[in-house]
Design a protein that fits this description.
Rossmann fold, binds 1-beta-D-glucopyranosyl-4-(hydroxymethyl)-1H-1,2,3-triazole, pyridoxal phosphate binding, glycosyltransferase, Glycg_phsphrylas
Length: 810
């Protein structure tokens, strides 16, 4: 039976009555939301079960994507879209007097990630299901997501994100107690001979019950539903009595309580290492248990199972897989190792040295002594295998255990058949610099997979008006097949269409202006350039470069209020890690500069500065469609890829960019005339590192503009930043400006003048914007995951695209 409005409304009312014994008119938004989710879930569950059965029937190879972060945001709209229910629900709700947007707003953001890394994992999950690949996620069900950010007197304050305690809770998860496994941590281990095998005997170990919560990941119009499995730590019933005190219980439950609020490594943090081993062990155990249910022997497991290590956090997958194959399945070391390397693959997401995880040997020994033994044996065999064949120093540099530490990236590369970077420039840097020695050892293992984004969320859902005018030109097929967006280029001289693009952008800017006014009380002009920088606050991402230019503009306008500039609204969204003092100082300086500028009537509102609190996925969905300018201004070589650059171009923003990360490929796609490039190249940055010829203080002393702008940080021009202004001033001058902000400043001013000039020619601007939208299809995560599937995991798609929408039964 086809799902139509009448059937949907009838089913909805019935479900509401069954769940809450009330009518629509008496229901709160939470009750309506919960009822809708329950209907959605029961409908896709039919396909979910079928997807599993199909995998088993066909004996499909399955991939497990291990990531310590997944950042899906809200799932209701994307599930409705993918099921083909979106418009139907909006129309049905309208008919019975329900405001769909208000109901959807009840859902808490699922913020189980910090930023790019976790969001990429979520976009991949969407694409993998939409392309019909048998790939499931494996992560942690944090009770507290990424902190909520508030500004108090311009300072960032962090509040806990109690997302599971909201009225809506997590409507999408299913607790599967029957699939729980036991994770062993701590204590001591001894190996004893038993029946010809070495058997580990654990003493004083702690047993932790790992309970999976499964979230269905619905594919786009293809009846395919994959699983995101998130693990929660609990006390095993059998040993409840061993945890008599609240404190003892808390030690176990704390393992999955909070997401570490940093997007780089927190070396030395015991709890973080526990988290890593916990979800790795739970995931690997459950994979092998499942595999064994359907296969008699395990010595060819790599033919049916692939495990992906997303960044180094799950690198212990290598050792845990070995542990089970050796200790429980009694494979020989050689066989176990062969299968492990064939099963594992690894993605590196950064070249920042501080983010390449290392753990102290005693700490790993304390958390899981058997894993340390296995890692030590891998290290020992690695060294023995290379001895005499390779330069001794190279062996020392590449071994897993050295200097009293376990190097997780080394474990990941040595234990995997594939290592990839996330943009071409980044992969090249891995080969030539960060992982150069490994590239010498295993050139065939290295490959690039440039990141991608889910066009469904970042265009169809976030910018429905733009999607609608694209439909008018291309029909709806581009929604299935991103590549078709390219055809938009042919409308480059279609003035009608270019005008429509401008109208859509204006509407999105008006909506954002309203939100800005509601949240900050500041009025902004929707016809001004909306200049957007949204990403984590990091020195290398150079929000500071943007700020210095804003200060320069302000000083210029103070001197000459009639200065002819195109009005601009500078919009920031960024969280700083709570312990990252410098980043928090930058936030304070931006906020104080904003307060000064936004309240100074002498500059006639020509510039405004808006720092929106609590940047998260939902806020990104509101900012991105309204952006004219996308600031991608990291120091060349430092941003592995970036993904906001892709989301913003997809929504027609023009990019101001350094030659860093995926910006390089964006430039290749749109052509140099359709992007604003500036700044040092990677080669120039590296030359400075080699010859030490950069002296930032000279720029302060010899460049009058820089002198004037930097002085504004310390001379009281910007109030309330006595300490922070000095801290930043010193970092840029006496401490020699690690990220070349002053070196790139003039070129940044030049390119921003070019932005103004281009904006004055609206036709040209819209043409450039159109090219950006059309070319963004190259960065669809649907395309990226296809490359992972065929080139790394060797799995095939098992679903038919364009199958019947999920509609029945309810
Ligand atoms: O900083 C990188 C981004 O450049 C990249 O786009 C994203 C996804 O690949 O991952 C970010 N990242 C890196 N997040 N955490 C790390 C630390 O390893």
């Amino acid at each position: 039976m086809e799902l139509d409005k009448t059937l949907f409304i009838e089913s909805f009312k019935k479900r509401l009555s069954q769940k809450y014994a009330i009518d629509v008119s008496d229901a709160t938004n939470s009750e309506l939301y919960d009822t809708l989710c329950s209907l959605v879930k029961s409908s896709y569950s039919v396909s979910w079960r079928q997807t599993w059965k199909d995998y088993l029937k066909e004996n499909e190879k399955q991939v497990y994507y291990f990531s310590i972060e997944f950042l899906p945001g809200k799932l209701l709209k994307s599930n409705l879209l993918n099921m083909g229910w979106y418009q139907l629900v909006i129309d049905s709700f309208k008919e019975i007097g329900i405001d769909f947007e208000q109901v959807a707003a009840v859902e808490p953001d699922m913020a189980l990630g910090n930023g790019g890394l976790g969001r990429l994992a979520a976009d991949f999950m969407d694409s993998l299901a939409s392309e019909g690949y048998p790939v499931n996620g494996n992560g942690i069900r944090y009770r507290y997501g990424l902190f909520k950010q508030r500004f108090v007197n311009g300072y960032q304050v962090e509040l806990p994100d109690e997302w599971l305690k909201t009225a809506a809770g997590n409507a999408w998860e299913i607790r599967r107690a029957s699939k729980a496994v036991t994770v062993t941590m701590g204590g001591h281990v001894e190996l004893v001979q038993k029946n010809g095998y070495l058997e580990p005997i654990y003493k004083d170990a702690t047993l932790i019950k790992a309970v999976p919560y499964d979230v269905g990941i619905v594919g786009y119009h293809n009846q395919h539903v994959n699983t995101l499995r998130l693990w929660s730590a609990e006390i095993p019933e059998a040993v409840e009595s061993c945890y008599p005190t609240i404190e003892a219980r808390r030690q176990i439950e704390d393992i999955t309580t909070v997401l570490y609020p940093d997007d780089s490594n927190e070396a030395g943090r015991r709890l973080r290492l526990k988290q890593e081993y916990f979800f790795v062990s739970a995931g690997v155990q459950s994979i092998i248990r499942h595999y064994k249910k359907y296969h008699e022997t395990i010595d060819q497991i790599s033919q049916r199972v692939a495990i992906h290590i997303n960044d180094t956090h799950p690198a212990m997958c290598v050792a845990e897989f070995m542990r089970i194959l050796l200790d429980e399945e009694h494979l020989s070391w050689e066989k176990a190792w062969e299968q492990t390397v064939k099963t594992m693959s690894y993605t590196n997401h950064t070249i920042m040295a501080e983010a390449l995880e290392t753990w102290d040997i005693p700490l790993l020994n304390e958390i899981q002594p058997r894993i340390l033994q296995i890692v030590a044996e891998i290290d020992h065999r690695f060294v023995a295998h290379l001895a005499g064949k390779m330069d001794g120093q190279l062996i020392e540099r590449t071994r897993i255990i050295s200097g009293g530490k376990v190097h997780m990236a080394h474990l990941a590369v040595i234990g995997s058949h594939s290592t990839n970077g996330v943009a071409q420039l980044h992969t090249d840097l891995l080969k030539s610099d960060v992982l150069r020695d490994f590239y010498t050892l295993y050139p065939e293992r290295f490959n690039n997979k440039t990141n991608g984004i889910a066009l469904r969320r970042w265009l169809q859902l976030a910018n429905p008006e733009l999607a609608a005018i694209i439909d008018q030109k291309l029909g709806r097929n581009w929604r299935q097949n991103a590549c078709q967006l390219q055809q938009l280029q042919q409308y480059n001289t279609d003035e009608q269409f270019l005008k429509k693009l401008a109208v859509v952008k204006l509407h999105n800017k008006q909506r954002l202006a309203k939100l800005i006014e509601e949240r900050t009380g500041v009025t902004v002009d929707p016809t001004a350039i909306f200049d957007v920088q949204i990403k984590r606050l990091h020195a290398y991402k150079r929000q500071l470069l943007n700020l210095l230019r804003i200060i320069k503009l302000y000083l210029d306008l103070k001197e000459n209020p009639d200065l002819a500039i195109v009005p601009r609204v500078f919009i920031f969204g960024a969280k700083a890690a709570p312990s990252y003092h410098y980043a928090k100082s930058i936030i304070k300086c931006i906020n104080e500069t904003a307060a000064l500028i936004n309240h100074d009537s002498t500059i006639q509102g020509k510039i405004k500065v808006i720092f929106l609190e609590n940047y998260d996925v939902s806020l990104a969905e509101q900012i991105i469609p309204a952006a004219d300018i996308s600031e991608q201004i990291s120091t060349a070589s430092k941003e592995a890829s970036g993904t906001s650059n892709m989301k913003l171009m997809l929504n027609g923003a023009l990019t101001v960019a350094t030659l860093d990360g995926a910006n390089v490929e964006i430039k290749e796609q749109v052509g140099a005339d359709n992007i604003f490039m500036f700044g040092l190249t990677k080669q120039e940055v590296y030359r400075y590192y080699q010859d030490h010829s950069y002296h930032s203080l000279d720029y302060y002393h010899h460049n009058l503009v820089i002198h004037r702008v930097l002085d504004a940080l310390i001379d009281g021009t910007i109030p309330n930043i006595a300490a922070e202004g000095h801290e930043i001033f010193d970092s840029l001058t006496y401490l020699n400006d690690d990220y070349f902000v002053l070196r790139d400043f003039e070129d940044y001013l030049r390119i921003q003048d070019q932005v103004d000039e281009t904006y004055r020619d609206q036709k040209k601007w819209q043409q450039m914007s159109l090219i950006n939208i059309a070319k963004a299809c190259h960065f669809s995560s649907d395309i990226t995951v296809k490359k992972y599937a065929s080139e790394i995991w060797q799995v095939r798609s098992v679903a038919q695209k364009g199958g019947v929408n999920i509609g029945y039964p309810l």
